[in-house]
Amino acid sequence: xxxxxxxxxxxxxxxxxxxxxxxxxxxxxxxxxxxxxxxxxxxxxxxxxxxxxxxxxxxxxxxxxxxxxxxxxxxxxxxxxxxxxxxxxxxxxxxxxxxxxxxxxxxxxxxxxxxxxxxxxxxxxxxxxxxxxxxxxxxxxxxxxxxxxxxxxxxxxxxxxxxxxxxxxxxxxxxxxxxxxxxxxxxxxxxxxxxxxxxxxxxxxxxxxxxxxxxxxxxxxxxxxxxxxxxxxxxxxxxxxxxxxxxxxxxxxxxxxxxxxxxxxxxxxxxxxxxxxxxxxxxxxxxxxxxxxxxxxxxxxxxxxxxxxxxxxxxxxxxxxxxxxxxxxxxxxxxxxxxxxxxxxxxxxxxxxxxxxxxxxxxxxxxxxxxxxxxxxxxxxxxxxxxxxxxxxxxxxxxxxxxxxxxxxxxxxxxxxxxxxxxxxxxxxxxxxxxxxxxxxxx
Length: 443
What we know:
Elements: E1 22-24, H1 27-43, H2 45-54, H3 63-82, H4 86-105, H5 110-127, H6 138-158, E2 168-172, E3 175-179, E4 182-185, E5 188-190, H7 198-212, H8 218-234, H9 238-257, H10 264-273, H11 280-286, H12 293-296, H13 301-310, H14 313-321, H15 325-328, H16 354-362, H17 366-379, H18 383-398, H19 405-414, E6 421-422, E7 425-426, H20 429-436, E8 439-441
Antiparallel strand pairs: 1-8, 2-3, 4-5, 6-7
Protein name: O-antigen ligase domain-containing protein
Keywords: Membrane, Transmembrane, Transmembrane helix
Transmembrane segments: 29-51, 57-80, 87-106, 112-131, 143-161, 191-212, 219-236, 242-261, 273-294, 354-375, 387-414
């Protein structure tokens, strides 16, 4: 039995991958079901909200989250209890600790704490798929492919017409959300397609494509990448557009120009080096007085705002309101959307960086997690996950990455190999599957 290993080499002549039929059980099965749930909810979020509103069952929206909580339980049982993975134990312990810190630092309102836990659960669902080559499963690959196309089509259609759910307002625990087109960048309408929000629509298309890019013919992968980039351009999601362009360039280069880029070592190098982006904000903030990106181009104005305000804001706020939180963090969900249900709602400002927000929430407790993430990239052998790590690090350099849920699920999936690491050694490939017995090849 073998998973996490490709069935062939990437062919520059257009050969397709022939995925092995596989069965999952245990935690990987729970993770797969939750991931598909998050994907379908985020891809068609506006439609779901509209239908639930018409049926007068708005709380049915949270039914998808139940799948995530089931995956969280399966992750704890499989990786922490049965396998005693040290990093699974650590990340599970970090969850209640960060909730307690949030309750003590921010607010003890159940709506806030519940939203914070709900926010992070997709990460654990993705981690359930450690050792699993998800897109090698034919049905999963088809779902990812269809939803990627649907997201692209939805963005294109939204640019040409108004959907019936446009302007829909949904109230959750006293906080109102409106599904509508938002004017922001250079007075250009940001369209959200079937997702109802431009960043979410672009993220779904981008990461669904990146998951399957090695399992289709290189020419088709590149064409699909160009379509994703075009959709991101229409949605004015500049971060996703940049990532899509660079990823398409990498895929084209490894297929037809530089065969050496196909190797696992090249992918490991790319993924590992991408963690340099974690520390780049420190350099940019330190040199902010000497650089003016807005003067170089008006399109870089938002980037300059990140350097001068967004990235510094969490630590300035914590230094003022709770200095001890600079070490312990302010708790789960303290500085992003769950805090809208807390006393800190009026203090919220965009942070626009996954790692800065994570450090603000978890403090020094996040340092071991970051170290293991780097180690995971350095030891990984799944090229799809390695490219995902590199693209995620670039994507979350400009965005928080905690929503939509499928983005956080993708982060979990890409870094899930950390839970196959043992102190002093790692378990992967055939050894992982032989030892853990959660995978079966269908007859």
